Amino acid sequence: MVEAVRDTVAIVSEEDSSKRRQILDGARKVFMDLGFDGASMGEIARAATVSKGTLYVYFADKCALFEAILEEEALQHGQVVFNFDPARDAETTLKEFGQAYIHLLCRPGGGSAIRTVMAIAERMPDVGRRYYGRVLDKTINRLADYLKAHVASGDLAIDDCDLAASQFMELCKASLFLPFVFQAAPAPSEERMTAVVDSATRMFLAAYRGK
Amino acid sequence: MVEAVRDTVAIVSEEDSSKRRQILDGARKVFMDLGFDGASMGEIARAATVSKGTLYVYFADKCALFEAILEEEALQHGQVVFNFDPARDAETTLKEFGQAYIHLLCRPGGGSAIRTVMAIAERMPDVGRRYYGRVLDKTINRLADYLKAHVASGDLAIDDCDLAASQFMELCKASLFLPFVFQAAPAPSEERMTAVVDSATRMFLAAYRGK
Amino acid sequence: MVEAVRDTVAIVSEEDSSKRRQILDGARKVFMDLGFDGASMGEIARAATVSKGTLYVYFADKCALFEAILEEEALQHGQVVFNFDPARDAETTLKEFGQAYIHLLCRPGGGSAIRTVMAIAERMPDVGRRYYGRVLDKTINRLADYLKAHVASGDLAIDDCDLAASQFMELCKASLFLPFVFQAAPAPSEERMTAVVDSATRMFLAAYRGK
Amino acid sequence: MVEAVRDTVAIVSEEDSSKRRQILDGARKVFMDLGFDGASMGEIARAATVSKGTLYVYFADKCALFEAILEEEALQHGQVVFNFDPARDAETTLKEFGQAYIHLLCRPGGGSAIRTVMAIAERMPDVGRRYYGRVLDKTINRLADYLKAHVASGDLAIDDCDLAASQFMELCKASLFLPFVFQAAPAPSEERMTAVVDSATRMFLAAYRGK
DNA sequence: TATGAATGAGACTTCATTCAT
DNA sequence: AATGAATGAAGTCTCATTCAT
């Protein structure tokens, strides 16, 4: 799954004029490290080994460059969490999804996109809204669809599958994401992540397992 | 006369020096609306109807002013979520706490503090860490303590009470907090919040109710 | 001679309203340490343990305060280098004067006045001019008068006594003042000062001793 | 092509990048007129007919710009006082050097560098120390070396050649430099400078001429 | 297309000075 | 007389953006 992430990036890289690619790569790093305001176009140019002027050949302004990166992030996200074959059993699917999800969030610099977007959601509501829709909501919907299929088959007994999907995703973050994103703890260990996802799955099924 | 002086000082600090209050109120608004970087000291001065220079009479710099606001936020937080009497039964306590918690997060401008701090946690890790410790972790710990008491009494069967506390809090946010904080939805209705908290409580107890 | 300096200060202190004294003392220290621009009225107020407002009760503005200090400095200077009794023999007189002079310049913080005034002479020519007239030129004239007396008595053979006076004073600074004032060396030792003044005297008399 | 690039760079630095020259020239004027603190970057930008931002393209900060000017000053100084051929006779050499030296110090705006550096030596000791070393001390050493050569040849009888060098230089300033630098007198006339240097030379040789 | 020199608006901060008490 | 809270002008420096090459 982590490989999937890398592949996605690689694929995107191959198409695209190489300068544009360079810029996006440099910019992502700088934006995610420093935040939207903290990142300067100069720093980005340096990270991309491109002149400052070139930045403006490919992107109208700082904001457009930033959104282009979120776009990519959205694609990546979409590709990763995509294993919702209704045929697979719930426990396995949830655990696997949970793992992928929490890995995505807690990978080094992984909270960065969420954090960075959140930071400017107030000043640029469109950016926030779009990111939520394309990334977070989309994932919820996919999981919800999967759950609905299993509700239909009598496998699960869920009233509000959208809520349930969101609940599962929140459960996977328990004790992991917040400390990580607030820099109050280093990235969690594999074992810890597994334990949390297992606990989330157990809890979820305890509540929603159809009889 | 010396006492007079001291009294004056005391009064001034008691009524929070009025000017200081003005500044804090203006600054909170601007910071929460625009984020740390987006807020300018000039804007803050205007919002507080105070001269720019006065800002620096009361606070050493922009960062100190920001932290003073987080401090207040932390106090507020601490006062709200305070009803963990071990004698109360779990369902009631959890529901009540869940309500208070989600109200706090989703009140108009309520995600702002979390969002704003999250945004600068990368560049100012201390601020992030401190906020997490004083606000989020503290709440988790209180809930965890409550849970431990009920585990001891055989009321609940929980292995890792810290994890469980975190899980409950995450569950309460399901489908509510993220859309709200990303500006993808308005503040949720009372009914919706109640429904989500009820669902969270049901799920939690389904998993952890002692037999 | 050094005692004379201290006495002068003490005398000045006794007259003068004590607040004014406090201010002058605090301001002198701050001005001399930090220069005219480097010194802030706030710092001066703190050094004088007086409120900022009080500064303006006694002095119209920063500049007036500064000039008041130079005034004092001028008085002090005048009092110290005052042992030009025409009856004393040249060698002794010159050596004693040279010692006093170089001690004054190289005492800890002693170049400070000259340095500080020099610094603003371009922007505030009056201040520079006045300081030169009251302090430096006055001393030269006194020494010149002394020399003239000895020329009259045939003791010395000097064409231009003003130039000669200036020459002797410059000679006393040789290798001492510049390194000190540029912070390229610590204050010179007593021995070194004595040696330099002796050398200056010898040189001076070699050139100007009447036959 | 790479060579072309390098050539361009070389050319740019050779012609001192014209913009950089503009800045240095404007800055020198402003710094020397107003002192380090009195000079504002805005004023300098105006004097150089350059935008404020451009200043920071070429120099890291105000201090770096100032030091760049001192650097130039040092170079100039070094080039002027350069005729210490040990073969030349002492009287001629000293007179010529004295003339060059006093001209340098008393040229319009010539005391400015010394004055300005002196002014900030207390707050920025490194700047003072470096300037002293590169400009003043260097000159002293060259003169001292010259004197040593003549001591070796029996031409002069000097104990401490470093002191002697310093003494000669101080003598040349007598009655000229201080009034000039304190704005108490206009730049001295040619005749006056010649007279003072002649007197200095006579005095020096009277004291140190070997028998 | 790609550059990088140049800009000017605006950010944070300091400080001399004023004024009500 | 003495205070200290308050001010606003001005200073240093950064940065998104433009433009000639």
UniProtKB/TrEMBL annotation, chains A, B, C, D:
<dbReference type="InterPro" id="IPR023772">
    <property type="entry name" value="DNA-bd_HTH_TetR-type_CS"/>
</dbReference>
<dbReference type="Pfam" id="PF14246">
    <property type="entry name" value="TetR_C_7"/>
</dbReference>
<dbReference type="Pfam" id="PF00440">
    <property type="entry name" value="TetR_N"/>
</dbReference>
<dbReference type="InterPro" id="IPR039536">
    <property type="entry name" value="TetR_C_Proteobacteria"/>
</dbReference>
<dbReference type="InterPro" id="IPR036271">
    <property type="entry name" value="Tet_transcr_reg_TetR-rel_C_sf"/>
</dbReference>
<protein>
    <submittedName>
        <fullName>Transcriptional regulator</fullName>
    </submittedName>
</protein>
<feature type="DNA-binding region" description="H-T-H motif">
    <location>
        <begin position="40"/>
        <end position="59"/>
    </location>
</feature>
<feature type="domain" description="HTH tetR-type">
    <location>
        <begin position="17"/>
        <end position="77"/>
    </location>
</feature>
<dbReference type="InterPro" id="IPR001647">
    <property type="entry name" value="HTH_TetR"/>
</dbReference>
<dbReference type="InterPro" id="IPR009057">
    <property type="entry name" value="Homeodomain-like_sf"/>
</dbReference>
<keyword id="KW-0238">DNA-binding</keyword>
<dbReference type="InterPro" id="IPR050109">
    <property type="entry name" value="HTH-type_TetR-like_transc_reg"/>
</dbReference>
